[in-house]
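Bug #77: duplicate submission created two jobs. Keeping one. Sequence:
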Amino acid sequence: MLLRLFKHSFTTGLKSRIYFPRKTLERITQAVKESEKNHRGEIRVCIEAKLNPIQILRGISGRDRAVDMFSALRVWDTEENNGVLIYILVADHDIEILSDRGVNKSAPEGFWNDICSEIEKMFREKKFESGILHAVKKIGNFLENKYPREGRDVNELPDRPHLI
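Kept job's structure:
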């Protein structure tokens, strides 16, 4: 716990900006927009630099925090329960993907973990932008099969990544 506390204490928002500069955030936003033209699902990206000391002392994991952000960003609040959150906790190099119940019931076993593993591999190679864009594409393809675009385009959630 002390090592994790130390790591989070010295991780700043600047590290997130190094990994995900403005141009990268714009490309992620555009990828989400383009993806959502092909399906009725909603993809949300959340990038958090670090947890605060109290969260660490309480043993909050990246998964716990992703669940909190899934709620706070209202990913669960889509009309068809078809939201998906890609959550990155920079200090822990943790990636979590959460999907709402409508999407989750049709996802094959291990689907989200497989995408997380692919992102982690790309991140280890310092391909941060490519990792997120790859995930958006794979999730978008899955949503396109389960929730193909029909009728007008309703965008229920912001496309721009949420930075904390």
